[in-house]
Amino acid sequence: MDTAEKELSVYEAMAARFDAAVRMLDIDPGLVKYLRTTEREIIVHIPVQLDNGKLEMFDGYRVQHSTGRGPCKGGVRFSPVVTLDEIRGLAAEMTWKCALVDIPFGGAMGGVVCDPKNLSRGELERITRRYTAEILDYLGPDRDVPEADLNTDEQTMAWIMDTYSMHARHTVTASVTGKPLDLGGSRGHREATGRGCTLVCDEALERLGWKRHATRVIIQGFGNVGASAARLMSEAGYKVTGVADSQGGVFNGRGLDIPSLSDYARDAGTVKGFPGGESISSQEILEQDCDVLLPAAVENVITHRNAGRIRARVIVEGADAPTTPAADAILIDRGVFIIPDILANAGGVTVSYFEWVQDRQGYFWPESMVDERLQRIIVAAFHAVIDYAAKKRVSHRIAAYMLAIDRTAFSIKLRGIYA
Description:
This protein is of the alpha/beta class and 419 residues long. It has 14 helices and twelve strands.
């Protein structure tokens, strides 16, 4: 398999970074094998009656990577290109992400192979509920707590919570996170990942001696993460010069009017065609001149093919696994300041943890408290990673992996191996 093919595998990319990190850690080889291996991989085949009366089958997955530090935590995505390999890699990344920000979860990820664009609301609900029922024995507040991910949202989480609750015979709000506020969701959750990206970018600017008003930002992806980051960064004084989604993008070197762009995207369903700048493709926008690039869409968008043309000096990874290992090497050689995904986008899982805590307490916090606690955790994690990277003379990504893996290994050693 050549380099280009390997770049396409989310799991192989995670495994390569894991191997690079553990080579620099003093961990027993047997424990390394344990940490590298998923605990459970569930494959289900979901029969769903479509609106036209036809019965269709959908494949679904749930991978639980680790319960060494607590219940599993991870998203559920709906996409026609979901694979077990992708889900396996993202589940492991969730383990490291939770450990890095020191919240008591392990990693999981789930997905259903379907195209939400071609399904009605009723069909999506039936897929969600049957998928939940098929993996129900492995879910729960103390086992595995799903959250929204690609092409899923608050409504999807409400359906999962209700399905779980119907089988439990009582309402279990802590069974999922990312729910609507009226069903036990947390204030600040919707903006949490975008806010975390903004916080780490602020800290990077402080380290580099830059000013927000002179910092040009390009964002690929205008879903929940990208749109929230664009709004928060614009409000903070950054100059957002480019935004793109899956259909296309818009670029304006003088800066985009983000409130107007958000209104346009809400009505049109895309940022493509926004009159406040020149049209550009979703791939081309990655290569435009800017100071900060924030990939917030899907994985593997920065590869060895385009890494040499990336002109940003800072990359904030709002998406999971947007940069391949081959691209990493190119960018590091060029001195690009990379804030890796397991740090940059950890705001989402951090506030998911807050939601889980609030649901179990039955007591909910004001948004100011959520934001303040999020900032404290993300900023501390940022400085831990950057300082550790300098101390060990490794990249920021490998430093983040080393910290997370070492923390997870320590917890498992304390617990011991049940036999």
